[in-house]
Amino acid sequence: MEWILIFLVGILAGTLGSLLGLGGGIIVVPALLFLGTIEFMDISPQVAVGTSLLSIIATGMASTIAYVKKGLVDLKSGFIFFIGSGPGGIVGAYANGYLHTSSFSLYFGLFILFISFVIFIRDKLPPIKPSGIMFTYIDMDGRQHEYGYQLVVALSISFVVGFLSGLFGIGGGALMVPVMLLFFRFPVHVAVATSMFMILLSSITSSITHYYLGNIEWLLVILLVPGAWIGANLGSYINTKLMPQTIMWILRIFLLVLGLRLIYEGILGY
């Protein structure tokens, strides 16, 4: 029964990760930590993160292929963000070794709750006019969107995103997508698609680091990856069928509930 559950976790993580540009680690890491508490197998936070990052590669690859076919991935921006997130992920992977289960859940939950709050107040924040490297995107309705960013700012933020990805095993999208929406003014669908491309690249570097640190449980990977691949294709399909505001509300509610749950577990010392 536990093996089927892990496969289903992979599908759910792949679907939500691809749909919202989060990568899927937000589902996988808590799920693996929970399985560790019921003595399914010995799953430390380090193993949960390392295993999660490896499964995120499948989610990122399937999502990127699907989004590239639809012309939604900004490849140039994705590579620029990776220049910062790649090294950040390696540093975060090493920093992960200093976290214990209870503190991990608490800090992870606080981080997710903060991101949820920022997304909730997004519409009330004054619009930020992008500057620096500028791009133009024309959506399916023929509307033109302009977005952009300063190179130094983008590299600094993506380094932090990569660090948190390697630290928490979340793929980085939980922070990068809001940043792209709030500060760089990316269209929602382009932000999600480009985030998944960056997540694919940064997860590879972070996974290599966790592999050398011995933080990957291969049996779990074998069960998670097929589900993540299926879910990623499903999520990318659903994404293109939903209105941008619908995606935003799903993201807001999902992060809020998850953040509160993790904080609760961290306070109780699970």
Automatic annotation (TrEMBL):
Keywords: Cell membrane, Membrane, Transmembrane, Transmembrane helix. It is found in: Cell membrane; Membrane. InterPro entries: TM_pro_TauE-like, TSUP/Inactive_protease-like. It is a multi-pass membrane protein. The chain crosses the membrane at residues 6-35, 47-67, 79-97, 104-121, 147-170, 182-204, 216-234, 246-264. Belongs to the 4-toluene sulfonate uptake permease (TSUP) (TC 2.A.102) family. This is Probable membrane transporter protein. It comes from Bacillus salitolerans. The lineage of its organism: Bacteria, Bacillati, Bacillota, Bacilli, Bacillales.
